[in-house]
Design goal:
By secondary structure, the chain is mainly α. It has 18 helices and no strands.
């Protein structure tokens, strides 16, 4: 009996600490998001910085141990679960908004820019890993050799933050300009390529040999086939039966249960849960859902936005900018140079070679260099895999924030692209905007 009383008191204490931590996280995220808006940055940038500020990099500099006071070790597993739930819901939303039409019929310019601005950063990132590897703390890493870190950093360098990019394009009115549609199409294709590469890297990292990699690939392919040819038709039939009035509550239950089961499936395969959530979001019948209950995806998105600040803090607890040291600063400078050079040269160079004007090519290079939240998702996967040590993780997080923050000011500084609206030159382009940008998570 006394043991049960002590256990109940301990549970109550942990619950209270978790609730207090969440209150602090949400308040800080709101304040930093407003500050970001004040300096004309996407709100999510402020939320990411809030997460870093609540970790050792800023809060940890104060006397005593405020990080340990507000986020003691016993509550961090609970915060991690909430963070991963928010991440899974967010990735469902990214998959749900993914438009496969971006991947076809837009000409040689989009294809060239997309492929080159993934391949060049990937190659440069993998090459930089070879140079920096002697500075890695291999005791913190689960992988023994160079292959997994090189492949992972290559994939991390090649990503573009599709949601943040959409917000930047929308806020600057570029969705009315052909360059905005072109950048959005390129970012969508790049994200598809980068997530495919990352899935292969995760399979390699979690495998015990070639047979294990093949097993993961086969299982994931089977899941995709099941989602496309079994789950999607079943959902369509459920939503379109004339004799059945499916309410929004039922639709929400189907979507949430489906995305959680898909996330569980890929996690069980040895891949990360985000792949299952993204795949389920990309394959559900969007037209039928929008016709039956358009508010349901919005509810799921709002729930993810409520939980994402917790993810940023969990990330920030592993970021210690003050602990970089001299080598860490050199690593940061090298990563920034390689990240920016690879994206800008890959995108702008390919666009220029396929007929785009110099101004449009430069605008594409600057826009596609934004990494933001999507980069943090990939880095979280890498940290979980043990493909990164804590210092490299800190360096990559700072790079993700820096490349996102610099996008808007660089466009303003160089007055890119030129207005009024005019067509983007280049083979295969029709001159019209491809999509209307959608807000980022903020």
């Amino acid at each position: 009996m006394p043991h049960q009383v002590l256990s109940a008191q301990s549970t109550q204490s942990v619950t209270g600490t978790v609730l207090g931590a969440i209150a602090l996280i949400l308040a800080a995220a709101y304040v930093f998001a407003r500050l970001a808006r004040w300096v004309r940055q996407p709100l999510v940038v402020g939320e990411i910085i809030a997460g870093i500020a609540l970790g050792p990099s800023v809060l940890g500099l104060l006397p005593g141990d405020p990080v340990g006071l507000f986020f003691p070790h016993e509550i961090q597993p609970y915060l991690q679960v909430l963070a991963q739930l928010g991440l899974i819901l967010f990735m469902f939303g990214i998959g749900y908004q993914f438009d496969s039409s971006h991947m076809r019929g837009h000409g040689r310019l989009v294809t060239s820019v997309s492929v080159t601005s993934v391949a060049l950063p990937f190659a440069l990132g993998a090459g930089l890993t070879v140079v920096m590897f002697p500075w890695f703390d291999t005791e913190e890493m689960k992988s023994d050799g160079l292959l997994v870190p090189a492949l992972f950093l290559g994939a991390a360098m090649s990503i573009t933050a599709f949601p943040v990019l959409a917000r930047i394009i929308s806020e600057r009115g570029l969705h009315k300009h052909p360059i905005g549609g072109l950048a959005t199409a390129c970012a969508a294709i790049q994200d598809f390529l980068a997530w495919t590469i990352l899935a292969v890297v995760v399979a390699v990292a979690n495998s015990s040999g070639f047979a294990s990699v093949i097993r993961m690939v086969v299982l994931f392919a089977a899941l995709l086939l099941a989602l496309v040819y079994v789950v999607r038709p079943a959902i369509v039939r459920l939503f379109t039966l004339r004799r059945t009035r499916v309410g929004s509550a039922a639709i929400q239950t189907v979507l949430v249960v489906g995305l959680l089961l898909s996330a569980w499936a890929t996690e069980s395969m040895g891949l990360h849960a985000v792949f299952g959530a993204f795949a389920f979001g990309a394959t559900v019948p969007r037209r039928e859902i929008e016709a039956a209950a358009p508010e349901v995806p919005e509810r799921i998105e709002q729930t993810s936005l409520f939980l994402l600040p917790v993810f940023f803090v969990v990330t920030g607890l592993s970021v210690d900018i003050g602990g970089l040291g001299g080598q860490g600063v050199l690593m940061l400078l090298a990563v920034l140079v390689v990240a920016c050079t690879g994206k800008f040269a890959g995108a702008a160079g390919a666009a220029r070679l396929t007929g785009a004007t110099g101004r449009d090519a430069a605008a594409l290079g600057i826009l596609l260099n934004a990494r933001g939240l999507t980069e943090l998702v990939i880095l979280d996967v890498g940290l979980t895999l043990g493909a990164l040590d804590s210092r490299t993780f800190t360096v990559m997080v700072v790079m993700a924030v820096a490349t996102t923050v610099m996008t808007g000011p660089l466009l303003h500084r160089f007055r890119l692209p030129a207005l009024p609206e005019r067509p983007v030159t280049g083979p295969g382009r029709s001159g019209r905007a491809l999509v209307t940008a959608r807000d980022d998570p903020a």
